[in-house]
Amino acid sequence: MDLQNQDYKELITGIGDLLISGRQKAAQQVNTILVETYWTIGLYIVEYEQGGNEKSEYGSQLFERLSRDLTQAYGKGFSRSNLLYIRKFYITFQKRETVSHKLTWSHYFEILKADNELEISFYAKQAEKEKWSVRELKRQMKSMLFHRLALSTDKEGVLKLANKGHEVQQPEDLIKDPFVLEFLNIPEQHQYHENELEEKLINNLQHFLLELGKGFAFIARQYRISIGGKHFRLDLLFYHRILKCFVLIDLKRGEIDHNDVGQMNLYLNYFKKEEATEGDNEPVGILLGAYKDHILVEYATSSITNKILLAKYQLYLPDKTQLESALKKLLDV
């Protein structure tokens, strides 16, 4: 037999595709069963506690004894901390239909580490929407994504964020306050230049796209714009699949000023006339700087019809205490 002919190659490819698909379905089925099993174990524990047996017989030692006995009978997976998270899993998602089978137990284990129900609800919905790996989920939680998005809205917006996840429906939804770029590993006091920042963003494009959020497709860096014999360079060019528009990003090492706003307005006018095609919405410009003066921004953008968004970035993870305090004030109001 000629085992190098096209039919044989197609046979190998077909078997390979079938195996990959089968293994994925098997893994998904195992995950579904595991998540449902842990939910039910949580139910059993809570029902036992509510029956009064926990207080009358074992007191606070219930989980130590459960851990010891279950581990002895069934092996690993029943540490005291894991049992406490299983219990919390049921208490948090008491309606079985609110549990997503697209998330693994490892996802839920991380999500349940959040401090309040609003955060837990948000990360569960967002992890499913964005199809985050466990590693990506941990990074977003560590960077306080929920708080950063919440503080750019009002109390009603925070509740919507928790109930539905982050929905990009208008350009303003692209902004986080601030963008966190800790994955660039630039020391906070390091005197870097804008081209160094851009270079590191490109070298860490996957992480940057994760920080930007769902819908961004990278097109080019240092995109050349020629107007009236003069040449300009846009730092980063993206297309947003949900908003159906170009997104232009200019990086500023220091504070954003009115000249930066004027230049971005020029770029946006050019893209509207020269680059946009049928079906595209108007382009959006994002000026990403280390600082911004809110009063200057207000005056610089007040009469501009193009959509120019100004956002801050920081090179280190945010202070959890400060963000939690700010969010608490917003929710109290």
From TrEMBL:
Molecular function per GO: nucleic acid binding
Residues of the YhcG N-terminal domain: 17-148
Domain YhcG PDDEXK nuclease per the UniProt entry, residue ranges: 173-327
Entry's transmembrane regions: none
Pfam families documented for this protein: DUF1016_N (PF17761), YhcG_C (PF06250)
Protein known as: DUF1016 family protein
Species this chain originates from: Chitinophaga oryziterrae
Lineage: Bacteria, Pseudomonadati, Bacteroidota, Chitinophagia, Chitinophagales
